[in-house]
Amino acid sequence: xxxxxxxxxxxxxxxxxxxxxxxxxxxxxxxxxxxxxxxxxxxxxxxxxxxxxxxxxxxxxxxxxxxxxxxxxxxxxxxxxxxxxxxxxxxxxxxxxxxxxxxxxxxxxxxxxxxxxxxxxxxxxxxxxxxxxxxxxxxxxxxxxxxxxxxxxxxxxxxxxxxxxxxxxxxxxxxxxxxxxxxxxxxxxxxxxxxxxxxxxxxxxxxxxxxxxxxxxxxxxxxxxxxxxxxxxxxxxxxxxxxxxxxxxxxxxxxxxxxxxxxxxxxxxxxxxxxx
Amino acid sequence: xxxxxxxxxxxxxxxxxxxxxxxxxxxxxxxxxxxxxxxxxxxxxxxxxxxxxxxxxxxxxxxxxxxxxxxxxxxxxxxxxxxxxxxxxxxxxxxxxxxxxxxxxxxxxxxxxxxxxxxxxxxxxxxxxxxxxxxxxxxxxxxxxxxxxxxxxxxxxxxxxxxxxxxxxxxxxxxxxxxxxxxxxxxxxxxxxxxxxxxxxxxxxxxxxxxxxxxxxxxxxxxxxxxxxxxxxxxxxxxxxxxxxxxxxxxxxxxxxxxxxxxxxxxxxxxxxxxxxxxxxxxxxxxxxxxxxxxxxxxxxxxxxxx
Lengths: 276, 307
Hints:
- The complex is a heterodimer of chains A (about 280) and B (about 300).
- Chain A has about 280 residues and is mostly helical.
- Chain A contains 11 helices and no strands.
- Chain A has helices at about 20-30, 35-60, 65-75, 80-105, 110-115, 120-155, 165-190, 195-210, 220-225, 230-235, 250-275.
- Chain A is globular and about 75 Å long.
- The model of chain A has no long low-confidence stretch (mean pLDDT about 95).
- Helices cover about 35% and strands about 25% of the residues of chain B.
- Chain B contains 12 helices and 13 strands.
- In chain B, the strands form 3 sheets. Chain B has a 6-stranded mixed sheet, sandwiched between helices. A 4-stranded antiparallel sheet of chain B has the order 11-12-10-13, with helices on one face. A 3-stranded antiparallel sheet of chain B has the order 2-1-4, with helices on one face.
- Classes of the chains: A mainly alpha (about 280), B alpha/beta (about 300).
- At the A-B interface, helix 1, helix 4 and helix 5 of A face helix 2, helix 3, helix 4 and helix 6 of B.
């Protein structure tokens, strides 16, 4: 350790530091911290495990449900086996999304990151692409796994198949919803630059605010509630548009994506403007 | 070469860096010296594009940092040892930086070897001591084999072994013709490593010169005399235009009068001298002298005394 060796030569760069290198770097960052792998594994186990348990319990209690309850369950065949596991899984996606950028600030890593690539929008773009891709794959795996595992459990009383109208779109859409939610959270992490603050903001919107707007009176309250980011986004998991839904499933996802795009633009502007 | 022109950074109505200009040349270790809070780190952050200047500009070989093709290959910097995600291993920390600038994996192993972290390359950085974190930060700075290197307070918290290692590293990097820019609030550190000095206090440039010039210009040359006839000699020295202050026991500290003249005065007047010695002012004294008005955070007792 006492000898001082001087850096040896390094082959010249073949290209300018840009998106390509940033993408590789961000992928290395994501896969090299334990929290990513652990969280995603925990998410899959808990979401699907909980779903299986609830599906199984519901079938066992089927004879004790009154006819109204049975009708309600049969009308929304994906509620138990898709919407519920995605609802649980989204909590992990939200946390990971916030941390993609907030962890850079809380650890100080951001100063290394921006020295290596001072073109900040390149860094943000790379983070968005890599995280969206990871969440899309994870989200689709989760939604298809949940459907595949849940379907046989509820088949006796709530038969549902991918061929039924809107079902395949709902299952694919659940994965899309998780990917968009990941970016929605990433934007909050970037804007707030604080892990706890970012998670509180995202979960506050998903779990609290989205429900509170449902209590607003009159038709404007109904509109506000429908256009809330995750309320709109979750419509994609319904096989059919309900009579009182203001938005179609795809419109709903588009509204959620629109909110997310807006937040990402704000995140980009702030990232460029603020001192690191 | 780093060129800084009229660089200014304001936080609200507080000025952290105030119209600072300097040029840092290759092949030298340039020391950036100033008390804590003088604006050293802020200046370095602006050079690297981390903070936006309120006014003025910085160029690296004529270009702003943000437009450099492969920044890590031109400038390597250690700003603080904590710019690391503790959950990542030393190897992966360096790998994700290397990938942004088209630097091969082989180079990651190479710099780990240079800083002596090969044995802990697969360990997560949160278990690292301050010294190891510092070495990992230096490994990151060396990754791109850059011609310009910047270190902000690199010896902070290091043991003597680590301090010596960093000094040698900086010297050998400069000997290869690289530009080395290193900040410290410790004068003694600069005395040992720097060729050229930039001194900053309260955001303003105070000096831009060689270490030798700095000492010569900023320290009063004093002569220490011990004599049993103190009062008589003091009288004579004052008469010849010198200044006298008592020094412990039978000693006098004389300034503004050359050593030879003092000796002659004593001889001519039959005054017995027990000691006649030039006092070599250290860089530390020169620095304290120069920055005494520009220290931002005085100790409480100083404030009380001044108030």
